[in-house]
Every structure is written in structure tokens, then in C-alpha cells.
Design goal:
Blueprint: H1 4-7, H2 15-21, H3 24-36, H4 42-58, H5 72-78, H6 82-97
Helix pairs in contact: 3-4, 3-6
Length: about 100
């Protein structure tokens, strides 16, 4: 049996996975949204969604749904890093614009 620490987070479509799987320009645009709060272009969102779906299927997913669970408001009370809080607030603000 694997230790939890050796498998924790292995099935997360995280920044390094996005960088490896997304076209370079799409990744750049997405990071501008996440880090800078720029409006998320629907074409970028579609490319990210398709890349995530393909990644999940390759990982063995048989069902897929988009579940957005905003926790940005809770993060303000628990987050210790101001840069992380800024990233979360930028993403939240961008999503509210769409």
C-alpha cells in the first residue's frame, strides 16, 4: 500500500500540469487571469476545459463534470500568504465578470 504522502495530489490538474498540456499562449492567458485578474476569454476557457477533460480520461475517468466550489471568501480568513490571497481574489473577480 502506498503512503498517502506519495500519492496525495497526483490527480490534480495543477499549474505544472496545465503548463505541460496547454498551448503556450493559452497557458499565458490563463495565468494572466489567475495572477493578474484579467478577464477570462471564453476561447481560453474552452481550451482549458478540453485539456482537462482529455487529461482526466487519460487518468481513467469515466464520468466528468465541472464543479466550481468558490472558497475565496473563506480564504480571506484562513490564508496566510498575501500573494495567494491576491491570486484567489483575482480569479474570483475574473469569474464574476463573466
Amino acid at each position: 500500500m502506498d503512503k498517502v504522502t506519495s500519492i496525495f495530489g497526483e490527480n490534480v490538474f495543477n499549474e505544472s500540469t496545465m503548463k505541460a498540456r496547454l498551448p503556450k499562449e493559452t497557458y499565458k492567458q490563463l495565468m494572466k487571469t489567475i495572477e493578474g485578474g484579467e478577464k477570462l476569454d471564453p476561447s481560453v476557457a474552452n481550451i482549458v476545459a478540453n485539456a482537462m477533460k482529455d487529461w482526466a480520461i487519460e487518468k481513467g475517468a469515466t464520468h466528468f463534470t465541472h464543479w466550481f466550489q468558490p472558497q475565496v471568501l473563506q480564504l480571506k480568513n484562513t490564508m496566510h500568504s498575501s500573494s495567494q490571497q491576491k491570486k484567489a481574489e483575482s480569479l474570483w473577480n475574473s469569474l464574476e465578470k463573466n
